[in-house]
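Q: Hi! First time doing this. I have a protein sequence and I read that you can turn it into a structure. Is that right? Here it is:
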Amino acid sequence: MSSLIEAIETLLVDLPTIRPHKLSMTTMACQTMVIVRMRHSDGIEGLGEGTTIGGLAYGPESPESIKRNIDSYLAPLLIGQPSGNVNALRARMNRHARGNSIAKSALETALLDAQGKRLGLPVAELLGGARHDHLSVLWTLASGDTTKDIDEAFQRLDDRRHCDFKLKIGANAVDADVRHVAAIKEALGDRASVRVDVNQAWDESTAVRGIQALQDAGIELIEQAIPAREHAGLIRLANRFNVPMLADEAVQDARDGFDLAAGGFSGAFALKIAKSGGLLGVLELAHVAQAGGIGLYGGTLLEGTIGTAASLHAWATLPEMAWGTEMFGPLLLKDDIVTEPLRYHDFGVDLPRGAGLGIALDEDKLAHYVRK
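A: Yes, that's right. Below is the predicted 3D structure, encoded as structure tokens:
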């Protein structure tokens, strides 16, 4: 008889960051994670995580709404159901609840973690098997201070921790942002690549001016310069400049990916399990990108170790991540709630070993940081 889902617990966990993390819409000094503990009738517990950035300043889901909607709407759909058929449970959630992709991602992660533990297999094996056991990881420079960002980049290079860097811009005037980015690129020279994330802060005419200046400064990739809904504008920008465009908020799922590819978009898609509703959905988007000749980039919503590990299991199954990954979320946090942190070295991170996600909670740390 198959195992049944018996209980689903959600916890809000607040972890401080090592420094303020400045985005175009807000500045973060703390990251709130929604941790899911899914218990099954065979005694197995699956772990999941739902995390976003900047609360409602960034998108329609906040940590508080993720927790409330799991508790009130999504968990009742799953409790009492057989736990092994992840596809059926995913379809059940999508049939009865619209949106809520981060909440659904957290639950799907917990289902896959439990199934992996049940079968004694890593999550990547459940997804077809890992092609990589070490993935490159860039670092985001987001202090907002040019000198601090340059010093931080050189320290990461010297430690062999990161050799690609992304800068968060868009909160300041275009000329000021361009000067900031150009100064950092000039300081780093050929030792590292530099990309930017505008976080939808510009309109198209501003983007034309800003992207031209960034291209002249040697920037290698421009992420989501204009609002997500403006697909036609994003395609025009991709066709206008030599520097590639990275679609992030504009491409949530496989349907968005198909629309952009069919419209003639070139460049890359930022994959995120949170925005695609989980690992299975994000791999559907990745396959659309591959069919359309569009590059892949492993993105993050600054998840902690559980969400980061889940993403790594998905990225490891893909043949190539042309633009690498940004799975640095745990490194931005002052502490962790797991017994063994992820292993970052040689400009990347190792795929966790062991059954399921390969991650175990540190109960004392969890109790310390959980929101009372």
